[in-house]
Specification:
The chain is an all-alpha fold and 80 residues long. It is built from 3 helices and no strands.
Length: 80
C-alpha cells in the first residue's frame, strides 16, 4: 500500500490525458496506471478525496469551459 505522500506523488506523475494519445502503448500504460490508482483510492476516505481532487483539477479549466479546480496539496509526513 502507498503511504499518503507516495499516493500523492503517483497521482502527480500520472498522465491524466493519456486517453488523447494515438499511441497504443501510451493508452495501455495510462489505463493500467489509472486502474492501480483507482483501486488504491478505494482503500480509504483520504485516498479517495485526494484522487477526486486530482481528477477534478485535470478535468477543469478553460479548455473545459470551467473554472480551474485547485490541485490538492501534498500531505506532510507524519512523524512517529
Amino acid at each position: 500500500m502507498f503511504s499518503l505522500q507516495e499516493f500523492y506523488d503517483a497521482l502527480k506523475r500520472h498522465d491524466w490525458y493519456y486517453m488523447f494519445s494515438d499511441d497504443g502503448n501510451v493508452l495501455r500504460r495510462g489505463w493500467d496506471n489509472l486502474q492501480i490508482l483507482t483501486r488504491t483510492a478505494k482503500e480509504s476516505v483520504e485516498y479517495q478525496a485526494m484522487f477526486d481532487g486530482f481528477k477534478a483539477h485535470y478535468a477543469s479549466g478553460t479548455v473545459y469551459g470551467t473554472e480551474q479546480s485547485p490541485l490538492p496539496t501534498r500531505p506532510e509526513s507524519i512523524k512517529a
